Amino acid sequence: THTHTNTTQHTRAHPPPHIHASTSTPPHSHITMSEPLVDHDWIDSPEAAAVLDCIWEKDSAAARRFGVLEEPIILDGHHGQAAPKVTLFGKASLGRSAFVGALFGLPPSSSFKETLGLTHTIVYWPMKILGVEDLVLFKLKVWEGREKQPSTYNYANAAKHNTHCCVYTFSWTDQASFDEVKALAETIQSGGILVGISSQNKAEVRKVAEADVDELCRSQDLRLMHYTMGTSTTDRAEYIKTVGRVLNSICEHTLRHKE
Length: 259
Fold this sequence. Notes:
Distance between the termini: 30 Å
Low-confidence stretches: 1-32
Number of helices: 6
Largest sheet: 9 strands, mixed
Shape: globular
Oligomer: single chain
Radius of gyration: 17 Å
Mean pLDDT: 76
Strand content: 15-25%
């Protein structure tokens, strides 16, 4: 198992994407999305900006380097901490690791290389929970496993053990990728995040039906997000507007999982 910090180099040949989340709410589940648990607008506040200064490099949205035994020092000192585990599932070579890199501000790679074994990325993200005075600093432990597994070890089972949020990725142009994550979501049945990957090519033909995606989200309590490869930003305001909103949703889901 390889352990990395926020600045891990992820090996996919895709630049960071523009990401946004849908607002559709599944009608039933043991984990309901009907009532918000966090203040999604707090991340735009001056208080949040001061906290992000402790996490990011100066004047950018690039993640600051932290060693294995290090963590951000929040200047006011009034905060709690949560350390949920997030597991990423999806077919290889479709931008799965690029999604991780874009989601957490990691620089893209110019070459493709399959994920070997399990990768473990630590990402810090601040949140304000409704009804709680102090902010909470989330230490997200993001796990990603290789697609092809040896018979002696099941990486997927190891990755999803004690997971607080499952993130499923598929390509809109690859039906098999959707079928794979659909089977996983229906087996695990813990809700989570569903990410539909597409490109900027307007001539791209979608092979996965939106009705099937919507039905999966409703039946398995998944929040749908859209990942467009080829659009990137290093501006803090744009990062918060796109990537930050996704991190908010992941953190909120981990709270629902613990209820």
